[in-house]
Amino acid sequence: MKMTLVKLRYIVAIVEYGSISLAAERLFISQPSLSATVREIESEIGAELFLRSNKGVTLSPEGLEFLGYARQVLEQADMLERHYFEKKSARGRFSVSTQHYAFVVNAFVNFIKKHGSDEYEYTLRDAKTYEILEDVRTLNSEIGVLYINDFNEKVIMHQLREYGLTFHALFTAAPHIFVSSRNPLAGKERVSLDDLEEYPRLSFEQGEYNSFYYSEEILSVLPHKRKIWVSDRATIFNLMIGLNGYTVSTGIISAELNGGDIVAVPLDVDEKITVGWIAHKRVLLGRQAGQFVSELTEIAQKAAPRGKEE
To answer: Domains (ranges, CATH) in the chain?
Structure first.
């Protein structure tokens, strides 16, 4: 069997679409033909690329390694073709899953402005913590962004090891609260936990995996008489303004994207938050994933030391 670019694209498509049948449909070939190609490749390299089950297919450890090299080859081939033959940009593909951080959106915007081709298909997922881990484990996303601290580090790092993922720290920040600029707490130099007692606490829901260790906000185990769970960034900002609610985060706000309605105030607690990106340790980062990480690192380095609006 000859390993061709077409066959490499078949493997990447199966991973992107999550099933052989859907990939075959999108590639306009028959499912038996695609399955046969997979078996031929597996026979050639002497290893299974996919683990089959009633729920579909997932990459084997050998498949993860193969995918990393396949993506590298295809990216190089696309650049060669673009430079010497078609003189046009290839369709870019990249996905990232993240906790609800505005600076990640900034990095995503900068990445597209600097590196987006004429045609691209990118995905930015504001996701629950467990979903981020799953997305990167299954390569539904190449990059994930989340935080660790003293409370959740043991659990999160154990999960990363189990999934074969690595954590790369971006910055360590002191906790802040995010509140409306009209909130009485907005003018304080620092706020204590007692100051927060009468204000609704806003937290991102974690669905069926609603463990304290997966919470996006530190100090989640502390009792609070007014608590509201939300699922998206826009809602949490609206509730900060409409109900004088607050949430606990890194203190990094994008005034460019969010305006001046939300401000960060230092929280007077002896805690630290380390935010970083995760990736699969057996898969080489694609070119676009590497470019995004560079943008992410640059923004984090600029914003994190100030711990306030960018």
So the answer is: 1-87 (1.10.10.10), 172-274 (3.40.190.10)
